Amino acid sequence: MKVRVDAAACVGHGRCYELAPGVFGEDERGHCRVLLPDVPPEQQKPARAAEANCPERAIQIEA
Amino acid sequence: MHFDPYDPDLHRDPYPVYRRLRDEFPLHYAAERDFYSLSRYEDVHAALLDPGTFCSGRGVAVGVPEGPDGAVGGPGFIPLLIMMDGRRHTRLRGLVSRAFTPRRIAELEPRVRAVARRLLEEMCRKPEADLVSEFSGPLPTIVIAELLGIPAEDQAWFKEKSNAVAQFDPANARAVHPSHAMGAGAELAAYLGERFEERRHEPRDDLLSALLAAEIDEERLSQEELLGFAFLLLVAGNETTTNLISNATILLDRHREVRAKLSADPGLLPRAMEEFLRFDPPVQGLARTTTRPVSLHGVDIPEGKKVLLLFAAANRDERKFSDPERFDVTRDPNPHLSFGFGAHFCLGANLARLEARVAFEELLPAIPDYRLLDQEVERLCSGPIRGVVRLPIATGH
Question: With contacts defined as CB-CB under 8 Å, which chain B residues touch A45?
């Protein structure tokens, strides 16, 4: 599983790094930074929760 | 089926009505006020993600008259972020959102806690108290006033005026809306204008100064936009969080076993906040306006019609949630729509979560055995807000 974030769409709600702190982190403005572009199996559930919860639809997941 | 979101009778318990809407009239048309309602999770979610079809620029309340050109508000109307679309919304939101990131909000926690403790200390001196006027009301107002940089001596005045603006009752539009609310709005706008002016000369460490300094692509906020934003924070950051705390206080009085569990393990509170939000949200729904004809569930909505997106109904849709009528503070996942979704997702969500969590982290140990004194609580009649006017409790002290 791979994750990408559309930096132009992110406004820094911070849902992703709250729900999947291992996969996403924050930059100095509170916007999303991908920590693990290749998501290991044990992190896939939180990563999907982050994708579903991003209000800006900025997270893309490819299986 | 009759559905009027402003009917005081509905406010006693809207949830059976929402169930009927979901099951029998998933796209309901209310002829008296000329608006449509969506109540199923999938439909509300999809509409929130399609601002090209369901726009915000013509207002987010139903039953409020539009101007001749479809514009909201009269002369001197200040544009609010919540009523903007497209590039204008994205640009303005980008400017202000950095003040609301999780990290910036987390920095406020010690201040929020100090305010909560001070209010509770005062309340605990008495055997009976009104939770709204002594705790859930002042807490968010003090926090937002401090965040904006409003001096302490002005905060009581500030609360009175922001309440007058936030609370509108379209059923009595003539009595409340134009004179009272607009008058208070003009006073607040003048007051905030003066505070901005002070900071133009002498920036401080507050949100008004940060807004003045905010720049995107070498563009700054106009005076109108500055006022509009400060205004929105007041209105949106005030009644909503107050009623989130009030509604949760009622829920925990009715579910005392849950209250005991949360008291014993405050680590459950962050997740419990999500269930408070899902189960009885302070904002029951907000409207959009169709930009083109839409067909759904066999009903045709013409262009230019108001569509009420009922977050509170979507939150109890069994097509999405298992056992949705059950109040379950450990529910996981809990993808409620109480902050909306998409481009207009509540900017203050992180602040609301923080304030409500800290409120209960402090309230539960302070008044662990509180109980409501009235069986029938006095409900607010204020647009899409579900909440209470007052909440008399026995504090147990």
Answer: none
Sorted by where each starts, the structural domains of chain B and their CATH numbers stand as 8-394 (1.10.630.10)
Write out chain B residues lying below 8 Å of A26, CB-based. 101-103
Number of helices and strands in chain B (H, E): 18, 14
For β-strands B392-394 and B371-372, DSSP reports them as antiparallel
- What pTM value is reported for the model? 0.90
Asked if the peptide bond before residue B333 counts as cis, ω within 30 degrees of 0, the response is yes
- Which residue in chain B is spatially nearest to A45 when comparing CA positions? B333
pLDDT in tens, B225-279: 888 888 788 777 788 999 999 999 999 999 999 999 999 999 999 999 999 999 9
ipTM of the complex: 0.77
From the number of C-beta atoms within 10 Å of its C-beta (0-12, 13-18, 19+), residue B393 rates as buried
The whole-angstrom distance between A13's CA and the closest CA on chain B is 6
Number of domains within chain A: 1
